[in-house]
Write a sequence for this structure.
């Protein structure tokens, strides 16, 4: 299949962003209209949009697109520097919709504590076996050592683990 690359930058007056937004929207709507014409109502092969710096250069309605695009065979890879960019561009509800609808790929270098805590919670917890030792005097007056094991719940990835991922 053919590939189209749109390259530009956001630089205030004269920005190419509105043109990119319009053009990207038209391509998306065309793909969306083509999906029902295919077996299973999905594009085959699936179509992928890679929207790098989506909040800055290509302000399409991701809060709506992410809700039904996968079911149509449209994969959206939106790249952001931080969740704050999503929040600023699409507002609180838009941010939450985009965040909830998307699979997340987190790269290293994050530093926002609230975001890191949230990602740590998304990773969940697991049980680890913890060994402990104790000594107590035996009936004969000598010290007896015993070992016991318990299972403790720990974060699968701590905020520090996530922050220190390789970029």
């Amino acid at each position: 299949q053919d590939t189209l690359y749109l390259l530009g930058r956001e630089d205030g007056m004269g920005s190419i962003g509105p043109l990119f937004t319009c053009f990207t929207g038209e391509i998306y709507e065309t793909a969306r209209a083509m999906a029902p014409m295919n077996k299973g109502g999905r594009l085959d092969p699936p179509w992928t949009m890679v929207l790098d710096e989506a909040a800055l250069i290509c302000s399409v309605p991701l809060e709506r697109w992410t809700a039904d695009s996968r079911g149509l065979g449209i994969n959206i890879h939106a790249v952001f520097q931080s969740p704050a960019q999503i929040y600023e561009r699409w507002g609180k509800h838009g941010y939450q919709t985009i965040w909830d609808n998307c699979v997340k790929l987190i790269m290293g270098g994050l530093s926002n504590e609230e975001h890191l805590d949230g990602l740590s919670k998304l990773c969940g917890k697991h049980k680890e076996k913890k060994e402990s030792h104790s000594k107590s005097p035996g009936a004969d007056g000598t010290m007896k050592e015993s070992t016991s094991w318990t299972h403790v719940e720990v974060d699968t990835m701590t905020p520090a683990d996530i922050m220190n991922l390789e970029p």
